[in-house]
Amino acid sequence: MAIKRKRSRRSSGRTFELPRREQPSTRTNQAIAASSVRLVDEDGTQLGIRPIEQARAYAQDKGLDLVEVAPAAEPPVCRVMDYSKFRYEQERKAKQSKRNSTQVSIKEIRVRPKIGAHDYGWKKARLVEFLEDGCKVKLVVLFRGREREHPERGRAGLHVHRASARRSRRARRHVFVVS
Fold this sequence. Notes:
Helix content: 25-40%
Number of helices: 5
CATH superfamily of the largest domain: Translation initiation factor 3 (IF-3), C-terminal domain
Number of domains: 2
CATH class of the largest domain: Alpha Beta
Radius of gyration: 32 Å
Largest sheet: 4 strands, mixed
Shape: elongated
Structural class: alpha/beta
Strand content: 15-25%
CATH topology of the largest domain: Translation Initiation Factor IF3
């Protein structure tokens, strides 16, 4: 008999589901449905094609799990291993690779061809700051109206920016010029 809960006046009556753990994609022991499998021992030696019952008995005698590592193969490849240890090592590798990965961000600095001395100094300081932080920097020249008639002035301004940023070690590889 199911127990009914009374709703209080304050509850909204909404229901929600708890987040579920993802089921592992690899099948183990009794979940393997093939009739015969290619069996690989814990040290990597191939034991040949065996009926699934015999493979399960072999793994159980060793005190380990039978894990399906290549389900698409014909017959499926199963390995004898300690599955919990295998999952633990996989999770550690995933965390380590996530920890070692670095995100490179591209910062963009927009400049007009007619830029004042103070604005130029400020943009240059930001450029050097971004480079010291390890970011890549994209320099963009914005042209308006008749400024489009003289793109060489914009390129000259960009090359001045790039030359002033070369004092930083990373400037040669991390400054992109777009005009």
